[in-house]
Amino acid sequence: MPTMRTVHYLDHAATTPMRPAAVAAFAEAAAQVGNASSLHGAGRRA
Question: Is 3 domain-assigned?
């Protein structure tokens, strides 16, 4: 008869909280939307 085992998922990279400085940097970058391949102003700034 097989025995049951408890599985522990230890992928810290998938669940690590972001540092506040990283969140702030991401929010600032995400606010500046633009496609770098575009020729319009927003694309050139990206």
Answer: no
Query: Rg (Cα) of the chain, in Å, rounded?
Result: 21
* Parent domain of 28: 18-45
Count how many domains the chain has: 1
14-40 confidence digits (pLDDT tens):
778 899 999 999 898 888 777 777 777
Query: Whole-prediction pTM value?
Result: 0.45
DSSP calls for the chain: -PPP-------HHHHPPPPHHHHHHHHHHHHS---TT--SHHHHH-
